[in-house]
UniProtKB/TrEMBL annotation:
ABC transmembrane type-1 domain location: 129-326
GO cellular component: ATP-binding cassette (ABC) transporter complex
Domain of life assignment: Bacteria
Keywords: Amino-acid transport, Cell membrane, Membrane, Transmembrane, Transmembrane helix, Transport
Protein name: Putative glutamine transport system permease protein GlnP
Annotated organism of origin: Pseudodesulfovibrio mercurii
Length: 336
């Protein structure tokens, strides 16, 4: 008996080691195969150009807008102030730093460069990544609120709330997200902004129509997740809470929802990861999220291989971070 007990774990260990090694070998084989395939194509990899799509230093020229003479050059802190006069009018030009191309008394013409300075700027990929994260966080927040309210309405005894929730869920889940985005931007957005313009108010940026479309789309799925989570809790929990004198709302808030929250975390994480990836559709409404930014970068650089690989890795980093955060919440709620 003792020999069997000591041999079986060793066999299990050997079996796991073999399968792990097989996985590593298969992964290396796939990578090598892909590398070999790329060598068979007439393509030059330019990974050294990728960093500028995250951050780059741009040289900005300060040009004159009139013809005249440089009458004065003074220092104002770290900046240089150049005054150009044509005898009747004068213009002031501020050049950060001291990189000037003119001297006092020199004649300049319209469009001449007085000086230049450098400025750090975000690249397309970094800008697109930040917009994707911003849109996703806001959409997730409102999606949770909409889904929680709709999920509770879905199991409500109030016919109006219940039928409204069912209609909303079936309508949103039964139509493609891309179609909903088009309706939000080209139909509802146009109508709403026209009404705001006629009222003398500001227009709503397209970013918020994108957030609305994603939040309402996610809210329908979150509602079903919430409903399933609540209904998975035994009815005796509610009955016991009511027998202790709690109202239905208090029992739902303090007894049912905390237990349901632990069960719905994994499906919620999956839904929100899908929402992050679905944000790539917002490019159709001129929102420069990560996918649209990558598409623009590919158009100007002609580096499709490198840029689309980087785009995929960035999405993976965002979704993996969310997945790790949800796992952390699961552990915390399990310990509570």
């Amino acid at each position: 008996m003792n020999e069997t007990a000591t041999v079986e774990p060793k066999k299990e260990f050997d079996r796991n080691t073999i399968w792990t090694a097989a996985y590593v070998v298969a992964l290396i084989a796939v990578c090598l195969g892909f590398y070999w395939a790329t060598t068979q194509t007439d393509y030059i990899w330019r990974w050294n150009r990728i960093p500028k799509y995250f951050y780059y230093v741009d040289t900005i020229n300060v040009n004159t807008e009139m013809e005249g003479e440089v009458t004065s050059i003074t220092k104002k802190g770290k900046d240089s102030v150049v005054i150009v006069s044509d005898g009747t009018d004068s213009e002031y030009y501020t050049v950060p730093g001291s990189n000037l191309n003119v001297s006092q008394g020199e004649t300049v013409f319209m469009g001449d460069t007085i000086g230049s300075y450098t400025e750090g700027k975000m690249g397309l990929l970094l800008e697109g990544t930040l917009i994707t994260i911003e849109v996703s966080i806001i959409s997730i927040f409102f999606g949770i609120l909409i889904g929680l309210f709709t999920g509770l309405s879905r199991i409500s005894s109030n016919p109006f709330l219940k039928m409204s929730a069912i209609t909303y869920i079936e309508l949103i889940r039964g139509t493609p997200l891309l179609v909903q985005i088009m309706i939000w931007y080209f139909v509802l957005g146009t109508i709403l902004n026209n009404l705001l313009i006629k009222a003398g108010l500001f227009q709503i940026p397209e970013l918020w129509f994108g957030v609305a479309s994603l939040a309402i789309f996610a809210g329908a799925y979150v509602a079903e997740i919430v409903r399933a989570g609540i209904q998975s809790i035994h009815k005796g929990q509610m009955e016991a809470a009511r027998s202790l004198g709690m109202t239905k709302v208090t029992a739902m808030r303090k007894i049912i929802l905390p237990q349901a929250f632990k069960r719905i975390l994994p499906p919620l994480a999956g839904q929100f990861i899908s929402l992050i990836k679905d944000s790539s559709l917002l490019g159709v409404m001129a929102i420069r999220e990560l996918t649209k930014a990558t598409r623009e970068a590919v158009t100007t650089s002609l580096m499709p291989y490198e840029l689309w690989f980087v785009c995929g890795v960035l999405y993976l980093v965002i979704t993996f971070t969310l997945s790790m955060f949800v796992q952390y919440l699961e552990k915390r709620t399990a310990e509570a």
